[in-house]
Amino acid sequence: MAGKAADKRIVSLKIVHTSDVHGSFFMHDYVNNHPVKGSLSRVYAYVQSLRRIYGERLLLLDGGDILQGTPVVYCSNFVVPTGKNLAAEIMNYMAYDTGVMGNHDLETGHEVYDRWTKACRFPILGANIIRKSTGRCYLPPYCVLVRGGVKVAVLGMTTPAVPNWLPSALWSGLEFEDMVSCARRWVPVILENDKPDVLVGLFHSGKEGGIVTSGYAENAALDVAREVAGFDVVCYGHDHIRNCETVKGPDGRNVLCCAPSSMAVSVGEIDLQVEMGEDGTKAVKADGRVTDLSFYQSESAKYMQRYFNRYIHNTEYYVGQKIGRFAHTIESQDAYFGPSAFVDLVHQVQLETTGAQISFAAPVSFAAKIRQGDVCVRDVFNLYRYDDVLYTMRLTGQEIKGILEMSYGLWTNRMETPEDHVMLLDYVLDEGKRLGFKHLAYNFDSAAGIRYTVDVTKPYGEKIEVEGMADGSAFHPEAWYTVVVNSYRGNGGGELFTKGAGIPHGQLNSRLVASTDKDLRSCIIQYLKEHGEIDARPLWQWKFVPEEWAVPACRRDRALLFGRGAKETAAPAPK
Q1: Which of 271, 267, 255, 232 shows the shortest CA–CA distance to 20?
Q2: Residues 450-473: pLDDT tens digits?
Q3: Percent helix, strand, coil in the chain (nearest 5)?
């Protein structure tokens, strides 16, 4: 609403912000085949209800990571890649005003994300994504939106940590600038040339922390707000943490910072009151909140799904294809407490696909289950959620041990009494009310191809004892071995290869022997098709010791993490 008070004009604007949607477009989970909370269908319905109030004074923004995460978007990107880009079609349908590139958008490769940005009828921003050949921005650095006579400038940036996770072929010709440095360059330009009434930061970068180097910080949203003068609002994402808070900029201005978490379960919602004086003065007041849309109901949501029904049919056909059979049920929760059929099946696929000597893999789904019986493509999305390819790399025995030391250091507690936790836990769930893993479980790599023990009474750096290769031959710290990992890990993701193995990030590419042209999920699908019925069982190539402490502690921690109905503990290794 616009109004006048004496010689002042007051305009009310509404910003709705999504981030880390990860392909959650429709109100159904096409992997587990059940309804889901949230989705862009619900967001669209909610936004339409707000547009009836605000009209053109509503701005709809997206914070990146929309092109990866579900079979729906995977189908559009890779299975039927010659048609229209579904993410662009949906965002155009919803009438987004602008968006920003995320690291998982870049993960799809130039062919996919370039097609997406060209198909969007609004700018996808990336001020700190630089074309190496020219030194200029690869994407528009910012845009200016005029609503109700108010000029709103939006500066877009993404996390510069992309080279730590993705193969260079996916971002060939590009480099990524530190966000604070980039903002310091662009904000004066925007303020001088465009003279906006409101400046919004739209960042695919978490609150703070993550990977921090001498050159950049992975999560720098609040750093930019605190260190670069001029922002009124910062809309951010990437870390999947719901948050809304106000910080002080270096000029003393209040900067509202809002993050809606992920999977379109909630949105950031910001109310702006812009008071504009006839003498050119202005004042901006911002109030924000995160609005939960888990179960938002409206006919508009159903209508949107009907509009895109052809994509839904394509997805249902793709994920429903039978590719093999499991002799018994496998569960990801087993992987935290010892060797498991769930992760060891991934190890076997990786070793057979590449011919490497040693494999590293982690459970990337916290509590997934694939039941006994026919296995369809949808089940493989539970076994492996991401679109990584496989890397075969050369590592020394000492570096392999260093990776395991860091992995189990993130994963396990140091037990000082038999009653201690064996898992490294902290109050991280339900806003600090409940225990969960202190660190991200997708960094809990185990190994196959070697035999080793993990002593849970020892400190980090002394937990791992490698007994030998799985075939009975000796393992030597100074010897070189071929190791297969996913490309996220091989590019430095989780820092197991850099901090754990001690390999400088710039040298990781020199260790690369080969890379698959298909993603790991495609390799798993091919493996299941070739093998037919799979009797997936643990390889029993490692164990926690001392067992008299570790086994009861695993039983207790499993019940704590997964409930009393969970299996007591993994079966003991065969004698």
Answers
A1: 267
A2: 999 999 999 999 999 999 999 999
A3: 35, 30, 35
Beta strands 322-326; 533-534: pairing state: parallel
CB 142 within 8 A of CB 189: no
- Residue 173 CA, chain-centre distance (Å), reads 23
Taking Cα atoms as reference points, which of 78, 68, 122 lies closest to residue 100? 122
- What single-letter DSSP state applies at residue 22? T
Tell me the two tokens of residue 483: 């190791």
Per-residue pLDDT reduced to its tens digit, 334-368: 999 999 999 999 999 999 999 999 999 999 999 89
Tokens coding 195 = 């003279």
- Give the span between the Cα atoms of 168 and 407, in whole angstroms: 25
Average pLDDT over residues 114-132: 98
The pLDDT of residue 294 is: 96
Phi/psi of residue 373, nearest 5 degrees: 120, -160
Maximum C-alpha span of the chain? 87
- Going along the chain from its start, the domains and CATH numbers come out as 2-315 (3.60.21.10), 320-562 (3.90.780.10)
Closest CA to 260 of 277, 237, 278, 287: 237
Which amino acid does the sequence have at 14? K
Global pTM value = 0.91
**H-type alpha helices, 10-55:** 40-54
Q: Helices 110-119 & 86-94, crossing angle to 10 degrees? A: 20
Tokens representing 190?
């925007």
Tokens 């587990």 -> residue: 32
